[in-house]
Recover the amino acids of this structure.
């Protein structure tokens, strides 16, 4: 099952097009994209048994963020060995966790406004939680996942790394810095949801590519570690970390500039596309 947002409404993407969930369910589920995650089990049961109408044609570029109002957004740092190595850092013994504030979330296609000359790319697989999750063992974690989507953890490196105390969450939360989509894909759609190709290209040049089987802390372990501390709620997002190939670790360093086009992809999920444009200038306080 592929769940998306079209014109602000929840749709299922089928071989014939987009099916409006509110209309097909005769009002059982609201049109708001957050509605299905708050009643996930009922939604899955309905979708499995419903005789869906033929879908309507749609333009892929018109899709919005498939999750618009997550209660919590978790982001994991240093979760690929090669990414830790390119930064000259030891492998973590616990998942490093920060957040991306939800006002930075946007859809899979559109402009990315650059507030500075030090904005970087970070392709990431994103987990969407499907039911309340507290003290859940890794062996049971996939039962709590609604699906997987694709994300970019765009990062303004100057703000992120300002001394003496880095500001990861602020540096990664400018408007538009958290595009996700194009759809949330349920785990049953994948041969192995723990082993997907993910990558990123800038102006057609591949800058990142790996498989999620290389994660230091796989998705079930992330859910186990996070839920041991606090409850995860339906619709929450977990950005699982980026592979090697980020601009800040290159020699010389490379950052995004106006006119650049960023393509991000994940096997079985789809693509994100952003075109970089000038943004409102930002300068950290001295």
């Amino acid at each position: 099952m592929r769940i998306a947002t079209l014109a602000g409404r929840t749709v299922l993407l089928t071989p014939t097009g987009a099916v409006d969930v509110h209309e097909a369910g005769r009002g059982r589920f609201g049109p708001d994209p957050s509605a299905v995650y708050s009643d996930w089990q009922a939604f899955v049961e309905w979708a499995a048994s419903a005789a869906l109408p033929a879908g309507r044609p749609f333009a892929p570029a018109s899709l919005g963020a498939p999750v618009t109002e997550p209660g919590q957004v978790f982001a994991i740092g240093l979760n690929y060995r090669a990414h830790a190595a390119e930064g000259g850092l030891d492998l973590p013994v616990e998942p490093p966790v920060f957040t991306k504030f939800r006002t930075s979330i946007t859809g899979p296609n559109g402009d990315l406004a650059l507030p500075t000359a030090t904005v970087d790319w970070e392709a990431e697989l994103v987990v969407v939680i499907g039911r309340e999750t507290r003290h859940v063992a890794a062996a049971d974690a996939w039962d709590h996942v609604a699906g997987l989507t694709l994300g970019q953890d765009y990062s303004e490196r100057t703000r992120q790394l300002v001394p003496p105390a880095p500001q990861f969450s602020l540096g990664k939360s400018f408007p538009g810095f958290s595009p996700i989509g194009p759809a949330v894909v349920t785990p049953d759609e994948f041969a192995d949801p723990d082993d997907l190709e993910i990558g990123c290209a800038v102006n057609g040049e591949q800058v990142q590519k790996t498989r999620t089987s290389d994660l230091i802390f796989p998705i079930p372990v992330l859910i186990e570690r996070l839920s041991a501390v606090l409850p995860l709620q339906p619709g929450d997002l977990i950005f699982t970390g980026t592979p090697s190939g980020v601009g800040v670790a290159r020699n010389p360093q490379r950052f995004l500039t106006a006119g650049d086009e960023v393509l991000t992809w994940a096997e079985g999920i789809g693509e994100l596309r952003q075109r970089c444009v000038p943004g409102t200038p930002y300068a950290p306080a001295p």
About this structure: The first strand starts at residue 2 and ends at 6. The chain is about 15% helix and 30% strand. Residues 40-49 form the longest helix (10 residues). The chain has two domains: 2-58, 67-278.
